[in-house]
Amino acid sequence: MTQEQILGDYKIIKQMGKGPTGAVYLAEHRFIKRQYLLKVLPQELTQDRAFLQRFEEEVVKLATLDHPHLVKVHNISFANGAYFLVTDCVVDSIGETTNLAQYMAGRQEKLREEELLSVSRQIASALDYLHEKGVCHLGLKLNNILIGKGKPGIDIFLSDMALSKILNPSAIVARCFHTACEALEAFPVEIDKEGEEKYSSHPIEGEKLTKLSQAFLQTYAFLAPEQKRMKIATASADAYAFGVLIYYLITGDFAEGLYRPIREQVRLYQYDWDTVLKQCLSMSVDDRPLKLLPLLGLKVGSAVTTAEIVQQAPLKESVQVQKEHTAPMEIAAKLPQPQEEQQFEETLETELVAVAAAPVAAKIAAPSAAASVRFKPIIQRQDLPTPTGSASASAVTMELMPKRDLMEATASVMTPGLSDLPQRKTVEELLNKEPIVKQYLPEQGPLQSQEPIPTEMVIVPGGRYMRGSSEGNRDESPEHLIEIKSFALDIHPVTNEQFVRFLDYMGGEKDQHYNDLIRLKDSRINRAAGRLSIESGYAKHPVVGVTWYGAVCYAQWTGKRLPTEAEWEVAARGGLENCPYPTGKNIEKTMANFFSSDTTAVMSYAANGYGVYDLAGNVYEWCQDWYGYNYYETTSVEPNDPKGPLQGVYRVLRGGCWKSLKEDLRCSHRHRNNPGTVNGTYGFRCAADVQEI
Predict the structure, then answer these.
(1) Are 263 and 313 in contact (CB under 8 A)?
(2) What values do phi and psi take at 73, rounded to 5?
(3) Fewest CB atoms within 10 Å of the CB: 5, 31, 109, 465?
(4) pLDDT digits (tens, 9 = 90+) for 393-412
(5) Of 172, 173, 156, which Cα lies nearest the Cα of 104?
(6) How far apart are CA 597 and CA 170, in angstroms?
(7) Residue 576 to residue 582: CA distance in whole angstroms
(8) What's the predicted TM-score (pTM) here?
(9) Beta-sheet strands, E only, within 5-115
(10) d(Cα 564, Cα 553) in Å, to the nearest integer?
């Protein structure tokens, strides 16, 4: 890399990772201002003529690959002495780059079988496509499987296709050790007088050693036996890696030697995964996965794909399968019952203003959606994992048979003449009774309800709107036309009483990744003796001191999401054209809470044209998007439903706050900060997708 961090036509933003096949960087195209991932191959390979020949042969195939579960390769280039691939930057539902290893580590529960089937079929479908195109992946592992956001459930994308073949097996194994030594600083530090190498004597940090060990073992575990022996690998090596992956997703471990059959570990599975694993994990290259042919009812000699193995795996006749079953690793929190979820959605629907807002005084933008179309928000509640693995940090107690009853029962057994009586069996059952686990409840009374306090929502109609400003700050320009879909938005920011209910549910101020949700000393919420309380008179005030992580976590708990920056600005304008403020041409202190000493209760000022309150002043509101200083130059070219850069350092905040100046309250004004930042002026509100009714 040069000092300016420029590689060809791309400006390097940051390094995302490094592995045996090279380093990965997040980069932005210098001219079209679009973000990509650059896979920079090891530089020493440019001196290898055999590598250059393999590279030229394979890159043509890679550039033509187009499959919904493969990371798209847009370009293969050479600059500054380095070969690199330009690919899509795949992000998950909260805009983070997440691989399958990170996703599984954050779940705190294993995949349900329907999720396992979905993930397996997506991966198998992608592998089948590669093999049909004459391409072998040969590098399938958890870190090369990315989580997207395009579909409901777990959306899978495979990356790093065929790179192992380009580098060849011996180079991959060698670079695994090289990367390990580099991370551990285990290279020679000097040469003594006798020409012998000396190594560092400093101890290796335990955390660094653990992470590196996991990464190295993962890469090694997914290699087929022929790859470990540095022999030529074919598509059957992908089938072996697929088997390793299936076993890991079910058990959380890598299959080694004579592993325990799946049917002994998970008895409620409907599909015969053991047969799939037996074929895929065969030591013989020729036996993967052809031994499934008789089981699948196919003719001897017919070809069978890895996808067909999963899709057609037979049901196990020996197991009585329940339609619904508990996940292998249960979350201790009580899951909401279907009836409760239905009642929650009905409550929201009755409180929802379900018709697109009517025109108001002043000029109104003409949305493309007809005003007569009725919508309702899509609310999908979900239970969230916590640092302790439970929804609340309550203790548990063990309830056993009372000691007096136990002594009496024992005495009756020991009484002569009773050994052959039926009572003996009854007493033995009492003695062998399993302990009952009950949740501990404080003496002061039951725990507070953990259901969200619903907020009324309004529908903001989809259509074409102006965004940005030509008279504001540099990051607000150029002013340009965008098009968004209809969406639902809370009519006011989340309040203290609503967020306290959420904290009760979480059992603390950390999420599953130990990110701060809120810093109580910067808020109006206090904790004493383990109990939360709100300062007098602040229950209806917007919650403050919330991080972006806390806002996202709360939104997920309620079945909603954060609004995008584009959605927030459209909602703030309230249907008005050429008006800089949510209130119109001008704004006064009688219209919003700004340049004051504290927050005010939500809905203390008049709503805008869409019926939304507090979009100017009171609290800054977190948006979903990463912040990009020049991002509007991109959205002016790609205006459909903009969602911000794929990656960044800061998250967007909008709306100004109680101590802002008038200038900060403009609809187009942009603010940003680190997602983990806490501030007494930062709050949020939720949004949701909608569907026609």
Answers:
(1) no
(2) -95, 115
(3) 31
(4) 333 333 333 444 434 444 44
(5) 156
(6) 67
(7) 8
(8) 0.57
(9) 6-7, 10-19, 22-29, 35-40, 73-79, 82-87
(10) 16
